Amino acid sequence: MAFPTCTVAPLSKVQRLYDACDMVFSSAMAGMPMPATLGGSAGCSISSVHGMAAADVGIDDGEKQPASMGGDEPSPKKSVRLLPSHGFTRITYVHIHQSDDFSIGVFCFPAGATLPLHDHPEMVVLSKLLYGSVRVRSYDWVTAPPCSSSRKCGLARVVAADEVRRAPCETSVLFPRGGGNMHAFTAVTPCAILDVITPPYSEEHGRPSTYFNDVPIASLPGFAFLEEVEMPEDLSVVGAPYLGPRITVDMDDDDEGDYYYDEHYDDHDDYDDYDQ
Questions:
Q1: Chain centroid to CA 189
Q2: What is the pLDDT of residue 62?
């Protein structure tokens, strides 16, 4: 007797990324990933991020599609509508997922745009440059400012001094007190950065985004004085819809939307060219 065959579609890369993050970051016993633990289960998330391309999250990077992709997974460029990268005329955030434990999203930059120096309090951030080139400036505190301070300031160690990164490159990881927790990006060419943040920004839970001015210290090479400033008035980050493969989320991990970005940036869903 012949039985009907059942074909199971391969998981999309973004689904595999979500599943890895959910396994690692949503466990109450796991705790925050730290450098010494990245060879263990947290390494699954880094591998998943490193394997991502722009088309996997619904963005057309302008590169021609290879004649043969290889493997079983269909090319996203062949099957779905994508956000054309030339439509990003301002810094644009593409929200993919957010829960209490982690967020996934993509910052897309036109050439010359800058995301000012800012921090990630008590967070771990995995960042993957999907396409293009970006100039990175980053620091870590020598001694973290006390929580009681009305404004954060202090001596910081230079981690990256206007370092230019070009895709493809390794996934970068920053920690609460290492890896360049405070950083700034300037797009050398149009580019996009996939971010996985755990836990996400939250004013309510004491994880606001803080912006800084940095002043190099001539007598102390490799260090700078950082002082908190208000969010720059000329900073404009808009939103665009996520057009990539749908993600199946855990029942206990309902997507909370991008409330933090709605509160801190403007013109959500104001991408200039996504309906082409």
A1: 18
A2: 84
CA–CA gap between residue 48 and residue 25 (Å, rounded): 14
Contact 18, 24 (CB under 8 A): no
Distance CA 195, CA 102 (A): 10
pTM of the model: 0.83
Q: Whose CA is closest to 57, among 240, 228, 245?
A: 245
For 121-171, write each residue's pLDDT tens digit. Answer: 999 999 999 999 999 999 999 998 876 667 899 999 999 999 999 999 999
Confidence class of residue 217 from pLDDT cuts 50, 70 and 90? Answer: very high
Q: Which amino acid is at 71?
A: G
SS3 8: coil
Average pLDDT for 203-229: 95
Structure-block tokens of residue 149: 């301070």
Helix (H, G, I), strand (E, B) or coil at 217: coil
Looking at residue 124, the DSSP 8-state letter turns out to be E
Angle at 267 between CA 92 and CA 264, to 5 degrees: 80
Q: How large is the greatest C-alpha to C-alpha distance in the chain, in angstroms?
A: 84
180: left (phi over 0), alpha (psi -120 to 50) or beta: left
Cα(226)–Cα(138) distance, integer angstroms: 11
**Taking the CB of residue 63, how many other CB atoms lie within 10 A of it?**
12
Question: Which parts of the chain fold into alpha helices (H)?
Answer: 13-25, 42-50, 76-79, 259-264
Residue identified by tokens 């149009």 is 190
